[in-house]
Design brief:
This protein has 164 residues and is an alpha/beta fold. It is built from 9 helices and 6 strands, in the order E-E-H-E-E-H-H-E-H-E-H-H-H-H-H.
């Protein structure tokens, strides 16, 4: 779910990071899909994930040249969520994890499923219509958390998530 990238993330390492939902990078991190420079292609997902995350033109600029991209530019392009000093990398990744853990596990699963599965739909409308059929969304709608969240909000207290 969260990649904490320190140093070089090239080829397969970058592809693994792209498969994560959030990328936190140290200020010395560098990203690339350099396979074209050695007669290969980034066929472990990078060729499909990067254009979906930063747009076709920017992705093709990286993919077709194998260009190295520093963390700050990765944030500007949109595939890095946050850049921090190297010494703060793990604390920043943990902060992101804590923010996710503060939310309902059922809602996190449903939201992630709706996003990832919805991206496979041909249009926004079909993605919107299909989301109610996703098992994680159905489970959320039937969960104790679905009742607990609004009740805790109304009672001005912190929710007690059950994850069921």
């Amino acid at each position: 779910m969260i990649a904490a990238v320190n140093g070089v993330a090239m080829g397969g390492g970058f592809e693994i990071a792209l498969a994560c939902d959030i990328i936190v990078a140290s200020d010395n991190a560098t990203f690339a899909l350099p396979e074209v420079k050695v007669g290969l292609a980034a066929l472990a997902g990078g060729l499909h994930r990067l254009p979906r995350q930063i747009g076709l033109k920017q992705a093709m600029g990286m993919i077709l040249t194998g260009r190295h991209v520093p963390a700050a530019e990765g944030q500007s392009l949109g595939f890095v969520n946050e850049v921090v000093p190297q010494a703060q990398l793990m604390a920043a990744a943990r902060r992101w994890a804590d923010l996710i853990l503060a939310a309902s596990p059922m809602s996190v699963r449903a939201s992630r499923a709706a996003v990832t599965q919805g991206l496979a739909e041909p249009t926004l409308r079909t993605a919107y219509e299909a989301q109610m059929r996703y098992p994680a969304v159905g489970a959320m709608l039937k969960s104790e958390d679905f009742v607990e969240g609004p009740m805790a909000f109304a009672q001005k207290r912190k929710p007690d998530w059950k994850g069921r």
